[in-house]
């Protein structure tokens, strides 16, 4: 089979996407559901960014990182979800080769940035709780800007590496992607050429990039709870829980679904379980992030009330 595939190499101009494994009679219902979730993701995260920009009390490192996380969630979802929604309404679910490569590049880029932003937020919480007297010195504005900028730049280069390796790969007659977007591991399994370098870079480099930030996050919270337990009190415990609870929940959602797809997935090319996990981290998690932070965060709630009052005041003045 391998030799036959190698003999049938072809120049690929487009791929065909199988899409979501949804029965035709349920397509309309799921289209409305996913469209609503995507709109909630965009509007919810835009609101978080707007509130942080407008309220001077939120001009702190934690909310600076949160605003970039919200921006990343918008970009992350917008890479694949609009195309997925279009395909749910069409019979011929094709994507040009260049479009597939672009989709893959931006998907890897934004997923990597989100990974680093979650790590920076954990580090910020560690400094705030474990080294409160040095917080202003350690988390100064210039350092925060540099850390976020470095994350965006590094992740773009990392994504470029995977993309340049991918365009060297050739394909055979079968150009049907058993997924709803161009995911790199799935595409590599479809190729006819030697992908050993691609797989080595993908799993080793991705494993390190996912492992080191995750270890940093876990280490930060171990130090945080160790600090709390040195002088335990109910007030201090609930304060730390309210400060870190939202971030911990987002971390569990993000890493849990990513691990399901990349480390615990079935050996077959794709499965409904893997696709469901992809929907979870690409659609559900970015939508939940603004709700998680706003519902559990007193500062965000106050900023939202102030924003609503301003809007009411402006509308009243316009009516007068």
Question: What would you note in describing this structure?
Answer:
The protein has eleven helices and three strands. The chain has helices at 2-7, 27-54, 61-88, 97-130, 135-138, 141-166, 184-189, 196-230, 234-262, 272-295, 298-319, and strands at 14-17, 94-96, 176-177. The chain has a three-stranded mixed sheet with strand order 2-1-3. Helix 2 packs parallel to helix 10, helix 3 (61-88) packs antiparallel against helix 10 (272-295) and helix 8 packs antiparallel against helix 9. The protein is globular and about 65 Å long. The relative contact order is 0.14. Residues 1-8 have low confidence and may be disordered.
What structural keywords apply?
320 residues, mainly alpha, three-stranded mixed sheet, 11 helices, 3% strand, disordered N terminus
Compose a concise summary of this entry.
The protein is 76% helix and 3% strand. With 320 residues, the chain is mainly alpha-helical.
